[in-house]
Amino acid sequence: MGPAKVLFVMADYGHDPTETAVPYAAFKLAGFEVQFATENGKAPECDKKMLRGITQKLLGATKPAVNAYDEMSKTTEFLQPVSWSSPDFSLDSYNLVFLPGGHEKGVRQVIDSPIIHKQLAQYFPATRKPSKKAVAAICHGVMVLSETLDADGKSIIHECDTTALPARFEQVAFWGTRAFLGDYYKTYGVGSDDVEVSVRKRLDNPAKQYKNSLSPSPFVVQEEKFNYLSGRFPNDAQLLAEKTIALVQSILS
């Protein structure tokens, strides 16, 4: 068997650079074959506020993460993604679908996409163990899954353990920056549900299934019934990548 095949599902603009570039670098180091997909095959761009200028220095990616992003953004796979709206596009050939997060409003292109919902509604059930397919998501990437509904109108992760961006973190970022960034930290605008609330609404038993940590230390949740892992925010990206690599290597061995 050849190397594990990984697909990063991306919006044209707005994903968090740390949550994209750190896992990418780890997957490449592990020998995985990585591809990117955007709606029409346009090279994606991550959120510039997290990469450059005063907002990067105060709120954004660390210098190593910026360096990792700059390296990734020069690669052929990043510059020449496949198109997820192409008629012949399918997730079936991938061992891992990776969903980075980001709070910039551009990520709604993926979260709200009927095409991605249809693809994931077919792919995610196939990650039920034992399986050679897996999904990993971080931050708003978890919402792509929670907002994807099956034939019964339930989220495809309705029975899974998961985490996502904690409401406390989202509220602190929003209120702390509202004076100079407006509703930048609210992906669906002022008054919309926090990511945590949106995800909890889609779970069968949120009190039991939704796992949370308000510590800055890396925190990742691994589901037992499916090959599915989730993280909360950029601090979790490296650990999520490491646990995802271990999972994918184990299911393909």
UniProtKB/TrEMBL annotation:
Keyword Amino-acid biosynthesis listed: no
UniProt KW Transferase keyword: yes
Xref: InterPro entries: Class_I_gatase-like, ThiJ-like
UniProt xrefs under Pfam families: ThiJ_like (PF17124)
Source organism, top-level taxon: Eukaryota
Keyword tags: Glutamine amidotransferase, Transferase
GO molecular function: transferase activity
Protein name, per record: Class I glutamine amidotransferase-like protein
Lineage: Eukaryota, Fungi, Dikarya, Ascomycota, Pezizomycotina
